[in-house]
Design goal:
The protein folds into 3 domains: about 80 residues; about 45 residues; about 70 residues, no CATH class. Helix content is about 70%, strand content about 0%. Helix 2 crosses helix 5.
Length: about 200
């Protein structure tokens, strides 16, 4: 095959890959996803049913896209006069993409933190009933646990990080005075069970 044929086949692979990727995208608002996760509002069976299909389509789409780009690269490889310069430019582009990714990651974490705070301001949540989730939220918000901390103390710190009003904390103060030693042991045991601990 000559270079023009490789280029056409590569472009065709790109088109197929883009189709699969676009077909796999579920346009869902972050607020709706958080509400569904915490059991507020009606969920949709369609999203659950299509989850496996969407994952497969993403994999297929990336395979076709990468194959197409490689074929197009091979098609023009012989025409390159300054290969070293081209490789350097490509590496700079990859490095720039990494920086953009890190900026996007930071922005998405801040955005998600804001959505979490909005959710808990609108919907009352019993943090002590689900300590594993409370600890996950605490880790995300940067709440550190100390050995002398009881469950109620940790919950209070998480609620403070979420900037929840004090009037929503009723019952937590009373719980912190009863069984403080047992609660502290429970929190330490729960935290040890978290992934990466």
């Amino acid at each position: 095959m000559d270079s023009s044929e490789l280029a056409v086949i590569g472009l065709t692979c790109n088109l197929v890959g883009v189709f699969f990727l676009a077909n796999s995208i579920i346009f869902r608002r972050t607020r709706k996803v958080i509400e569904e996760f915490f059991g507020v509002g009606a969920g949709s069976l369609a999203a659950v049913r299509d989850y496996s299909l969407n994952k497969i389509q993403v994999v297929i789409g990336f395979l076709f896209l990468n194959t197409g780009f490689l074929l197009q690269g091979f098609a023009v490889l012989d025409a390159l006069k300054e290969r070293i310069t081209t490789v350097i430019v490509c590496l700079v582009i990859v490095g720039f993409a990494g920086i953009v990714y890190l900026i996007g990651l930071t922005y998405s974490r801040r955005n998600f933190r804001r959505y979490l705070r909005d959710f808990f301001h609108k919907h009352p949540w019993d943090f002590e009933q689900n300590m594993a989730l409370t600890q996950e939220i605490g880790v995300f918000l940067g709440v550190r646990h100390r050995p002398d901390m009881s469950v109620a103390d940790y919950v209070r710190e998480v609620r403070r990080a979420l900037e929840l009003p004090r009037e929503l904390e009723r019952g937590i103060r009373a719980a912190s005075t009863v069984g403080r030693g047992d609660a502290g042991r429970r929190l330490r045991d729960d935290v040890k069970a978290l992934p990466g601990r």
